[in-house]
Amino acid sequence: MNETNLLKLNLGPQHPSTHGVLRLILELDGEKIVSCKPDVGYLHRGMEKMAEKLRYVQYLPLVDRIDYLAGFFYSELLCRNIEKALEVELSERVKAIRIIMLELNRIASHLLWIGAFLMDLGAVSPFFYAFREREMILKYFEKVTGQRMMNNYFVFGGVRRDIFDTSDIEEFLNILPSKIKDYERIIDRNPIFVQRTSEKGVLEPETALNGAITGVNLRASGINYDLRTKDSLYKGYEFKPVVMNEKDAYARYRARVLELTESAEIIKQALEQLKKYSDLNQTLIKPIGLILPEGEYYSEIEAPRGLASCYIKSKGENKPYRLKWRTGSYYSVNLLRKLLKGAYLNDAIAIAGSLDIILPEVDK
Amino acid sequence: MNYLYFLYIEFLAKHNIPQLFGDITFYVIPITIIFIALLVVVLGLVLFERKLLGWFTQRKGPNRVGLWGLFQTIADAFKLLCKENITPNGVDKFLFNMAPLLMFTPALVVLCLIPFSAEFTFANFGTNSLIYVILAGLPVLSILIGGWASNNKYSLMGAMRNISQILAYELPIAFSLLGIVVLSSSMNLKEITLAQSSQYGIFGWYWLPCFIGFIIMFVSILAELNRCPFDLPEAESELICGYNTEYSGMRFALFYFGEYTLLFANALFLSVLFFGGYLSPFGKYLSPILFNGTLGNVLIYFEQAFWLVLKSFFVIFVIIWIRAVFPRMAAFDLLKFSWSILLPLSIFNLFLMVIIKFLTGGAYA
What we know:
Chain A is an alpha+beta fold. Chain A has one domain (45-328): Cytochrome-c3 Hydrogenase, chain B, CATH 1.10.645. Chain A contains 13 helices and eight strands. Chain A has a three-stranded antiparallel β-sheet. In chain A, strands 6-7-8 form a three-stranded antiparallel β-sheet. In chain A, strand 6 and strand 7 form a beta hairpin. The relative contact order of chain A is 0.19. Chain B is mostly helical. Chain B contains 14 helices and no strands. Chain B has helices at 2-14, 19-56, 72-82, 93-111, 128-136, 139-149, 153-184, 189-195, 211-224, 236-239, 249-274, 287-290, 293-325, 331-359. The longest helix of chain B is centred in the first third of the chain and has 38 residues, at 19-56. The two termini of chain B are 23 Å apart. At the A-B interface, helix 4, helix 5, helix 7 and helix 12 of A face helix 7, helix 10, helix 13 and helix 14 of B.
């Protein structure tokens, strides 16, 4: 192939389907992709550097912005690190509230992904259907935390305020199965959808492990790795991680839809816990003058887009010496180099969409 | 146009106006009416699509400008008119400006071939169905020119996709049209319409004997119009806006308007071929029953046009419905679908029509 015959295409950073500001430098032979080079960093806000200048309580509202679709997970991580450092035990009710919020957030995130993915493939309606259900969750978040997104609800040692009314969640959990059935009816058996996603972007388990892929993308490649099974927060909850064996974009879609049901199951169990423990019983850590003892702290959680973790090195000051985030999408972006090679341009959009990449999370 | 013509000349003679004036205005007035009606219909069509898509996706659709958002499209058109026409650097200026016109003109010309009613066909000649297929495929040229002249990689790719798509889907259209030609023994759209009138009412229309041909034609027309699921040339999530990425303001509006005019024209064409054109679904026309005398006889022609437009809106409704449900097809599946499924099927359909024609002994004629 003569190099001059290749078309160099700059996909992004301003492009309708790169979900923000992903830039892919593609070399095309006709519509076939010869090479792909992802370029990230257009949304870099210096999240980690900012932490070194701010006190922990000042930093807490910022971490929601790392992934605006799953903010709870990141505030949970920061809170968990500090609770670990100061050896504070959470009460059962606080744990249940946190699980409800986290799993609702996961459902909201997956719903948005379903809509956006189908939008990438050119279908209009599922986007609105998914947003309709997501709206119920966001309304509930607003009711409890005062915000639809960027909730800033978890605080060191507990939650900002107690949950009093759970009827909204129960109603949502009641209608969710029928809505999922609707999605399956309009999406799963749609011949064009199946044609565009099955056997496209096959992610071999070895490639996934070598590329540090976690979360749904890894489980859709047949590897049973769900951090929630080892998480102390989720101790006592019964659920089965969704594992698919097809490894393609369709499997990743199915896995996310099945995770909706799985998360709903976890929320149901958490609601039982809420009824059992009616007393909030939390001892909040005083945020003013909060000093972490010298040492290194690390905590991780299963976020909607893979394993997320927070590392803090403290020198015994009221600010961290160093703080580092690990986010799932960052590794998925890197995977595009391999997955897009040899694919056609319109498959490329389907493949990139199926990995669920959120750019703020990548750039931090 | 005999009946209306004589009525008109008689009316003028009563008022001592020379016949020459009548001869000229008799053709100018309906054309003006049709053009104004077309503008209204196309503006309504955009609103129709947006409203329907809104309802399909549990929204309200446009509802702020005017009653039920009736003036939304007019407001949009006005906005586009006021916008700056941006010509990017490095474009071929002549071709860049020509492309929207080339899109719009054939879209208007094909409407002249449609028999709106027994007396209103502006270009009524023997092979006008064939001319229709040729002219309706012409906007692809404008898309190619626009995509090439824009000096944008996305536009170029959209244009290339469109060319391969049109090449693949023109043939099935031609072959399924041939099936109709066999059944009706005519290439004239008006005669095809008349050939469908029988005592069986709507079951005598060609969608029933030529069902395979109807499906092929419908799918191919979706592809030719770049409608979902074949909207690859302007695939928003892949090519940003495809061939009209660089167009703005009135030039974009012309593209947009041309697309919707073509959508309307093709829906009319499908209704003529398969849904009995201007024939009434009840077998009889209602206006002579409702109104006595000359008024009833004149109103027939408007009623016929009404039925045709109604049928075409039904076709458009189905097209929009499909848009609400289906994702976009992949480029290569799309070509494979045409060359390996639609084309053989349409040739099979042609033979089937010959057999039906032979067996029924010309009952469909």
